[in-house]
Design brief:
By secondary structure, the chain is an alpha+beta fold. The protein folds into two domains: about 35 residues, no CATH class; about 80 residues, Alpha-Beta Plaits. It has four helices and four strands; from the N terminus they run ααβαββαβ. Strands 2-3-1-4 form a four-stranded antiparallel sheet, with helices on one face. It starts with a helix and ends in a 6-residue tail after the last strand.
Length: about 140
């Protein structure tokens, strides 16, 4: 199934309210999202003046294990305890730019968490921070 077809019932010109979906409509949306394939890209072609940061929260893995992995393989990333989570923590990126090596790091970290079968459903989530630096012309 092509990506365009899989979400054809969502009007991209409106701010559809997913929280209003009920019954079979909600089930259909969940099936469509679970089957949606988002291909990996090395760059998103963001403008050079855009930077961003990520926080990846997880449960079901001791923060000590994640911390050991992050320190060894990604020393400029940070692993911290998050007391709002049950046996878990968060992994915090440095300031990132749209560079292939940074997307590769993120992919490796996500693969590590997936391999460890962490839980990201109930209490854990992700935070995305976007920074737009104004262009200065002289």
């Amino acid at each position: 199934m092509e990506n365009k077809e899989s979400l054809c019932f969502i009007d991209s010109n409106r701010n559809d309210k997913f929280s209003c979906l009920r019954g079979i409509d909600l089930q259909e949306l969940i099936v469509q999202i679970e089957n949606f394939y988002l291909s990996y890209r090395e760059k998103l072609n963001l403008p050079e003046n855009v930077s961003f940061g990520l926080e990846l929260e997880y449960e079901g893995l001791s923060e000590k294990h994640a911390d050991k992995y992050i320190r060894k393989h990604f020393p400029d990333w940070e692993s911290k305890t998050d007391l709002s989570l049950i046996v878990g923590g968060e992994i915090i990126s440095p300031v990132l730019h749209d560079e292939p090596n940074r997307w590769e790091e993120l992919q490796k970290i996500c693969n590590y968490l997936k391999k460890k079968d962490v839980n990201t459903f109930k209490n854990a989530g992700g935070i995305f921070m976007l920074v737009l630096t104004p262009w200065v012309t002289m």
